[in-house]
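Example 9 (inverse folding). The structure is encoded as follows.
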């Protein structure tokens, strides 16, 4: 019996090795973020950049190793829809932060 599971459309569902690698990477990235924040020996900007970078890497690890997001399955349409979703989220979150910043700057008394 094969270690890799496939669905009816031929897409791979991963193997025990890919799940183990994903789990180990997720734990390591979480421990890196936790360690940087809990030690307190880094400046706040360094902590923020480290947490954001490890969070983005962890999202990518989980999408590729656990959710099997790749360019081969479904003709690449799942990647296109994911990129579109990220673009919409960036526009909404970025626009909201921009509006809140402008409101803060313009409403300051003094």
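The amino acid assigned to each position is listed next.
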């Amino acid at each position: 019996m094969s270690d890799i599971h496939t669905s009816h459309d031929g897409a791979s569902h991963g193997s025990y090795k890919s799940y183990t690698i994903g789990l180990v990477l997720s734990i390591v990235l979480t421990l890196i973020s936790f360690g940087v924040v809990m030690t307190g020996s880094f400046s706040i900007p360094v902590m923020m950049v480290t947490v954001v970078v490890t969070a983005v890497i962890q999202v990518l690890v989980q999408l590729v190793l656990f959710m099997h997001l790749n360019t081969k399955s479904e003709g690449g349409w799942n990647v296109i829809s994911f990129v579109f979703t990220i673009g919409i989220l960036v526009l909404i979150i970025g626009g909201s932060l921009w509006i809140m910043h402008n409101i803060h700057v313009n409403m300051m008394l003094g």
